[in-house]
Design a protein that fits this description.
This protein is 43% helix and 13% strand. The protein has 392 residues and is α/β, with parallel strands linked by helices. The protein has a single domain, classed as Alpha-Beta Barrel (TIM Barrel). Helix 4 crosses helix 12, helix 5 runs parallel beside helix 6 and helix 7 packs across helix 10. The structure holds ligand V47 and iron/sulfur cluster. Ligand V47 binds next to strand 6, strand 7 and helix 15.
């Protein structure tokens, strides 16, 4: 990192606001910004200035590389003992006839439908069903690994894990060890929502709290596993709560280094108990990504999850600090379609993902879950991808 601001970068720092200029200098010098700086960025930073700063950090870390992966989702159930106010997807156990509950055989049928197809990851996450316990999921993971050992299992949020560990009467450390031994490779970022108790108690008071969420990710990191982290933004939280959330994650990352990606998730308002809240604007979304890139200095990657944001806004986010747009997904998730995303059938093949990235002059690179590079598509012709089943 340069210790002084290069002359060519001065243009980036100079705004009419002295506070922003001071923060800009810190960022250009590779210094960490403070909690107060983070709030100031949200309050005073213009979209263009934040975008330029975040893009500079993104390019320092990754150049033009933009990652995606080939994955699919399994949502074992939408029956859930909790009642998060923003959730459009779950059904209470008493109304389980309106939801779905997949057996191990049904989930293995989905896994087998990908035999011979080039996918590297299965993402398993769902509601917290009182009858799907730890033994059930251990059997599921063992069956997946017996069938396809190389498939990376990224599964279960701390909400699901906390519930199953408590029911199985095991400690977090013991539970994580058992799950890891059964085949769990990494944790997705869900269930984090907003950590601050003032907000958490209003939107999801009955599920695992911030300390519990962070404890489970820490235990995973201590076993050598990696994980992601999300934040549900754009509802009743204030900028301070967003920074508080990111600060807690940044501190854990300083200790363990186990997080790969930070994923801001835009609140969608269809058919849930928070439907009266308007959704955030695209400007607010891009500012969110930019501040995330600037604040989360120890997170390697910032991801825009396109099924929720929509593909055009995901494409736009690549100029606001984002360097990952998740995966092909293959129309295998219902969470966002049910919450009102414009992506009602979320599936993109590799040719479409690569086109989307190339249209904004970035460099498309397929990765696996742990960001090992699988293939660089910079010089691969779209026609060639379309006709080659191994590439598409
Ligand atoms: O925790 C639920 C969110 C999350 C709504 O790690 C909603 O790679 C917006 O975490 N509006 C689960 N968001 C999904 C998740 C995820 C997705 C993709 C990739 C990864 C990863 C993780 O979905 C929940 C919650 O924050 N969510 N309802 C809603 N109405
Ligand atoms: Fe259940 Fe998750 Fe929906 Fe909350 S967000 S009600 S924990 S499925």
């Amino acid at each position: 990192m340069p210790s002084v601001v290069p002359a060519t970068h001065n243009i980036l720092v100079n705004t009419s606001d002295a506070q922003l200029n001071a923060i800009g200098k810190k960022i250009l010098n590779g210094e960490r910004i403070s909690f107060e700086d983070g709030v100031t960025l949200f309050e005073k930073g213009s979209l263009s200035w934040l975008g330029a700063m975040a893009n500079m950090v993104r390019e320092r870390k990754h150049g033009d590389k933009t990652y995606f992966n080939r994955n699919f989702h399994i949502e074992p159930t939408n029956v859930c003992v909790f009642s998060c106010k923003f959730c459009s997807y779950s059904r209470l156990y008493a109304h389980r006839d309106e939801g779905w509950e997949l057996s191990i055989d049904q989930m293995m049928h989905i896994i087998k439908s990908y035999d011979g197809k080039h996918v590297t990851e299965v993402h398993i996450v769902g509601g917290v069903h009182p009858k799907m316990n730890m033994a059930f999921f251990i059997d599921l993971m063992k069956a997946i690994k017996a069938h396809r050992p190389g498939l990376h299992i990224k599964a279960f949020t701390p909400v699901e894990l906390d519930y199953m560990f408590k029911k199985a009467k095991v400690t977090v450390e013991e539970g994580m060890r058992l799950a890891h031994e059964a085949g769990l490779d990494s944790l997705p970022g869900g269930g984090a929502e907003i950590f601050h108790p003032d907000i958490r108690k209003q939107i999801c008071e009955d599920k695992v709290d911030a300390e519990g969420w962070l404890h489970i990710h820490k235990a995973a990191h201590e076993l050598g596993m990696h994980s992601n982290a999300t934040m549900l933004y754009g509802h009743i939280e204030k900028y301070e709560h967003r920074i508080d959330h990111m600060e807690r994650l940044r501190q854990l990352q300083d200790q363990t280094g186990g997080f790969n990606t930070f994923i801001p998730l835009k609140f969608r308002n269809k058919d849930n108990d928070m439907s009266y809240i308007p959704e955030s604007s695209v400007v607010e979304d891009m500012k969110m990504y930019a501040v995330a890139r600037l604040y989360m200095d120890n997170f390697p990657h910032i991801k825009a999850y396109w099924p929720m944001l929509g593909r055009q806004n995901a494409q736009l986010s690549l100029s606001f600090g984002v360097n990952d747009i998740d995966g092909t997904i293959d129309d295998s998730t219902k969470i966002y379609a049910m919450a009102g995303s414009e992506e009602q059938t979320p599936a993109m093949n590799t040719a479409q993902l690569v086109t989307l990235i190339k249209q904004v002059k970035r460099q498309p690179v397929e990765r696996d879950t742990l960001y090992n590079e699988v293939r660089d598509y910079t010089d691969v012709n779209i026609k060639e991808i379309e006709v080659n089943p191994l590439l598409n």
